[in-house]
Write a structure and sequence with these properties.
heterodimer, A: alpha/beta, Rossmann fold, Ubiquitin-like (UB roll), five-stranded mixed β-sheet, 24 helices, B: alpha+beta, Glutaredoxin, 2 domains, 7 helices, 44% helix, elongated
Chain lengths: 633, 170
């Protein structure tokens, strides 16, 4: 994950920008030296594409491009960008001009791309996008349904800019909103604009951002601006991708907030498990300081704002605001009761405004285009857009940005491209470990995704994790998984959360091991309601959500585990076994070759058999069989 | 694998040489002796030794004037700190939700059984530390295994077996 990436070096003559007009001039200068029709290769280097080998693809492009004879033609530029979003088809490459989309590009394809596509305008069909159930090729990125159906306001720069070169971001308008507030708006104007936009905190709770800024601005003394990038929810990676792909939008949002609340110190609290995000920030902040867009005397206006990076050390609870602030002070991250809110006394006992990465990233757009423009997206109660990390059992895995109020089925099928391997949709989990499972389409046909609607069905918006679950998912096991996660992450200071999680974990583990007893489900409900009612912090008061929501919607499945000692989804190992259906087995031998413990035997073209005494139920044969002949019993 | 910068390659026992000049650089120069940066100092120290050696903790305590009990409180609270020497290789299985749904739990179980260690522990020959991580953000290529900071997409038990076989042959 930490392969070296060549970083852009600012020209040494890059002098500080000494006035807001200077920024506009600098931008003009950059744009005039930039030919929009020059060939450009954009390679996604987000975490997903990197894991699939995109850094090697960038290197290969550099090597091939420099070794090609251009005979007077313009030599293409190569840019490594943040996450394009469609991670499941990575490494992704987009070629401009023309917005040509190539997927699953390997090092071996690079030479052909340069020779055919870049030099001779020929497309290579095998690298082009084809929808899951069609052979029709879609060549432009913007025509692919996954992108066409999104509304990318926050993600607009990601995939277009090189996050390690601030000039790229400036060309696309970064820091012009900051210039606007510094010249034409009073701090109160900024707060009013943000309040009018009805932007709500994107970290999970959905607190109105303008109101928070207003209350922090009213306090006396040194004020701090803090960005919560401790994205610890398993299955959520929006904030990491934002910081890796477009750090300047977030930094600009923080600077605007600092101006509005009268602060000159900012802290970026990033999860240490995101080494790329940390690295991108350590490049981006000094670049912005060198140009006078952050730091002392910003754009010559006398406004100062210094941002410091602080890395977390692997504690989910530090995503809670008071715990995060304790951690920033170098202490253990235990939440404190919030009789006094952190906008009054937070970091260093001073007024502190804490928002999430995505919240700050929304600010420049609101300032540039106005609150009315922002409210034209989304619903009346939840304005704007939301970025989700769409993962799990869905064809198109990746980041999606959609207007609030969009139908959940549209996200899963329209954008996500449906469920792979001909499986059926069983539910969608939103809000991470503190969220709930929404049983679409069976119990609830569909819902409009917004703060209020999700709460009605017992889930939450959360920071934006959206995990699609298919029929092979055991909901009891999912509940056990989340409770086990929270049990490990609970700070342990308050009894309901600590003891509640220990007991719920104990009961759920027993049930998934086939030792459930009558009354277990009712006991889980009782403990869950108690934990949610009496815990100290937000982690504790939502800790039982995964248990309560799965019991609410999937009680039958719990009953099957407790009474019949069966796991219908075939996940809880003691409660099922695999068999091969002799009627459909073709004897192809794939399961035999996949089995890591040699438990499957059978001659070619004859029915295979599983030796139950050897089988470790690892799912390899079940997942691998193309005829669905491996069945759960 | 070149054995240059990383001190862990030489770790044979728990007694290791502490480079106090390096500690001074981390504590006093990089972080200006600021108590608030203690967590990051500890991360930097751990980066060097791959765990927090007792002597380094004692020294940190003296320089920034924080009791060792407070340092150990922080070290045991946060998951990323280790008080025991880690292995030459760190094999980290992502147990985030997407990876979990695609069977990462079974992989952890399998390695645990094969090597006789639980997550967070190191084999007795100090070759390998098994860890789990909550989510590395590479859900599209789940299940993911990270070996020495390199992401291995779509990992499975056979791939892990190959890696361990390779390790045993080393």
């Amino acid at each position: 994950m930490t392969e070296a990436i060549q970083t852009a070096i600012l020209p040494s003559e890059a002098a500080k920008i000494m006035s807001p007009e200077g920024l506009a001039l600098f931008r003009q200068e950059l744009l005039s030296g930039h030919d929009p029709n020059a060939p450009l290769v954009l390679v996604c280097c987000g975490t997903g594409c990197r894991a699939a080998g995109s850094v090697a693809v960038v290197d290969k492009f550099r090597q091939v491009l420099s070794g090609t004879a251009w005979n007077g033609k313009v030599v293409p530029m190569i840019k490594h960008t943040g996450c394009h979003g469609l991670c499941s088809r990575g490494p992704l490459v987009v070629i401009e001009p023309g917005d040509l989309f190539y997927q699953r590009v390997t090092v071996d394809d690079v030479e052909e791309i340069v020779n055919k596509t870049i030099l001779n305008n020929e497309t290579i069909a095998r690298l082009q996008y084809k929808p899951a159930n069609s052979k029709e090729v879609i060549s432009k990125t913007s025509d692919i349904p996954y992108y066409a159906k999104q509304t990318r306001l926050v993600l607009k720069n990601i995939g277009k800019v090189d996050p390690t070169d601030i000039r790229d971001s400036i060309m696309r308008g970064s820091y012009s909103a900051l210039a606007k507030v510094l010249t034409r708006m009073s701090p109160q104007d900024v707060i009013n604009e943000v309040a009018d936009s009805k932007l709500r905190g994107r970290g999970g709770a959905g607190f109105p951002t303008g109101l928070k800024w207003e209350s922090c601005a009213r306090q006396e003394g040194t004020r701090y601006v803090i960005c919560n990038a401790d994205e610890g929810d398993p299955g959520a990676f929006m904030d990491g991708a934002l910081l890796e792909g477009d750090p300047h939008s977030v930094l600009e949002g923080m600077a605007i907030c600092a101006y509005a609340i009268g602060s000159n110190r900012g802290y970026m609290y990033v999860r240490a498990e995101y080494p790329m995000a940390v690295k991108t920030l350590t490049i981006a902040i000094p670049q912005a300081e060198a140009l006078g867009l952050l730091g002392e005397n910003i754009m010559g206006t006398g406004f100062n704002f210094k941002v410091t990076i602080s890395t977390g050390a692997g504690a989910f609870v530090c995503g809670e605001s008071s715990a995060l602030m304790a951690s920033l002070e170098g202490k253990v991250g235990r939440p404190r009761p919030k009789y006094i809110r952190s906008v009054e006394k937070g970091f260093r006992d001073s007024p502190s405004n804490l928002n999430n990465v995505e919240t700050y990233a929304n600010i420049p757009g609101i300032i540039t285009n106005g609150a009315e423009w922002y409210k034209s997206y989304g619903t009346q109660r939840s304005s704007g857009t939301k970025v989700f990390a769409l993962t799990g059992n869905v064809n198109n895995i990746g980041l999606v940005e959609v207007p609030m109020g969009i139908s959940l089925m549209e996200i899963v099928f329209g954008i996500g491209g449906g469920i792979p391997n001909k499986r059926a949709l069983k539910g969608v989990q939103t809000g991470g470990p503190s969220g709930g499972c929404i049983p679409i389409p069976h119990t609830i046909p569909d819902i409009n995704v917004g703060y209020g609607k999700l709460a009605e069905v017992g889930s939450i918006m959360g920071s934006g994790g959206m995990i699609v679950m298919d029929e092979d998912t055991c909901m009891v096991e999912v509940a056990r998984y989340f409770v086990n996660f929270l049990f490990q992450e609970s700070c342990g200071q308050c009894t309901p959360c600590r003891e509640g999680l220990i007991r719920m974990r104990e009961i759920l583990t027993r049930i998934t091991q086939g030792q459930g007893k009558e009354g277990d489900i009712e006991l889980l409900e009782e403990i869950g309601n108690f934990t949610n009612s009496f815990s100290l912090c937000g982690l504790g008061t939502s800790a039982a959500n995964p248990v309560l929501s799965t019991i609410r919607y999937f009680r039958e499945e719990y009953n099957a585990h407790v009474r019949d000692k069966k796991c219908p989804a075939g996940v809880c190992k003691p409660l099922f076994h695999y068999e091969i259906n002799p009627e459909t087995c073709t004897g192809c031998g794939l399961c035999k070759s996949k089995c890591p413990v040699k438990a499957i035997s059978g001659e070619k073209k004859k029915t295979h058999v599983i030796d139950q005494s050897l089988c470790i139920k690892c799912m390899e044969c079940y997942k691998g069989c193309k005829f669905r002949s491996v069945i759960i019993k | 694998m070149s054995g240059t910068a990383c001190a862990c390659r030489e770790i044979k026992s728990r007694e290791i040489e502490i480079d106090y000049n390096l500690l001074d650089k981390i504590i006093r120069v990089d972080y200006g002796g600021n108590k608030e940066a203690m967590i990051m100092m500890m991360q930097a120290i751990q980066q060097v030794y791959r765990f927090l050696p007792e002597a380094a903790v004692q020294y940190l305590s003296q320089v920034i004037d924080v009791p060792t009990t407070k340092i150990y409180e922080v070290a045991t609270f946060y998951a990323s700190f280790s008080l025991e020497p880690k292995g030459k290789y760190i094999l980290s299985v992502c147990t985030g939700t997407a990876c979990h749904l695609r069977g990462s739990g079974g992989m952890v179980e399998h390695i645990s059984k094969r090597l006789g260690i639980t997550p967070g522990k190191t084999t007795s020959d100090l070759k390998l530390t098994l860890e789990t991580v909550n989510c590395v953000g590479a859900c599209a290529v789940a299940p993911v295994v990270v070996i020495d900071e390199k992401c291995h997409p779509k990992a499975d038990i056979s791939m892990l077996n190959d890696f361990i076989d390779h390790l045993n042959a080393e």
